[in-house]
Fold:
Amino acid sequence: MKRFLFFAAFLFWNGLSYAQVDTTQRVIQDRHNSTEQQQKPYVILISADGFRYDYADKYQAKNLLALRQKGVQAESMIPSFPTKTFPNHYTIVTGLYPAHHGLVNNNFYDPQRKEHYSMRDRSKVEDGSWYGGTPLWVLAEQQQMLSASFFWVGSEAPIQGILPTYHYQYNEQIPMEKRIQTVVDWLNLQEDRRPHLITFYMPEVDHAGHRFGPDAPETRQAVQELDAHIRQLTDAVATTGLPVNFVFVSDHGMIEIDTKDTYPLPAAIDTAKFMVSGPGMLVELHAKDKSAIKSTYKKLKKEAKGYQVYKKSNVPKHLHYGKKDDRYRRIGDMLLLTDAPKIFHFSTRPPSPGTHGYDATKVKAMHATFYAWGPAFRQGVTIPSFENIDIYPLVTELLGLRYNHKIDGKKKLVREVIK
Ligand code: AMP
Ligand code: ZN
Ligand code: ZN
Structure:
């Protein structure tokens, strides 16, 4: 009986949470491609969440291996710090480091707003005021080029007042076949209503990596399934006969963590004096009263074993996550960073075996994937690893979009991969 009640409660809760999510396509009417934009090619930007740089080879993802062979591949793509989903997806579409676009983590505290942002909170995810920079779809729409999104971080929020012309509220229940068919339907629209930039997001490999670890058969299976979906998508898109360029990326990699020996909240931290975010490999402390910082920092430095302690003013420069970079003032006053594969863990429930978030310059398993193919790309080319801030100048070049604002990404990638 108890079990039944638990199951009934589970069904009710799930039903409730999905009932709140709209599965219909949201369309902004009265937008049209300008005549100039109608002449442009098409870009499908695909993200496979948590698709580590070596997964296609490790798990022999035969379709991806064949597609990258016809185009370009990077040895790896270097994600920004912290190597989490929200900061990195938003970096990819803005060309800015997380501290420069404001989405500094999946969940974070903003001391000026006195509010928390959380990827699980729809009201925050859909509130454009949290998002800085100019995402690719906003740039496109500003230049009378239509865009569409079958999910991407930020695509459900009006940023600078602009949403993609076609988009969906995030809902993993929508079957992949339907998502693929929708992309084809978009490409079959009349030229003035047809999106030239399409974002497409696939979460399954990340889920498997967390639950079972990067080396598990379940993760192999998830990679194989994703690979089959990529084949379905590319075959279906080919039927349109349009010049479509595919950019296949991931946001970060995955590592097997030490689930046995995790770190509790350090004794030096008085939770009455600090807001603590985390846990995981990164714990951030926002001081309620700044005078508590100095003494706590001193104590933590003495106590710290297996993790690094930084004040916002002495975070290593290459992380772009310190005081100078903190444009939105959302980074904690102090940061605790564990050495891989250790994590902080504050609950009694055991942690999942796979995770990500570590400094990618130190932990290769955090590296992401980059493959690209289509009429604009060189063929059979392998390039060295590059940072994910460089995707923005690449996509703007492919679509002939102009921008004057300053970004972190550089044009070097464009020269290496485009014909
Ligand atoms: P993590 O792997 O901890 O960085 O978190 C990734 C999670 O973000 C996945 O579970 C996805 O399901 C979720 N996610 C990705 N895009 C969105 C979105 N647009 N809205 C809400 N959740 C998302
Ligand atoms: Zn992710
Ligand atoms: Zn993840």
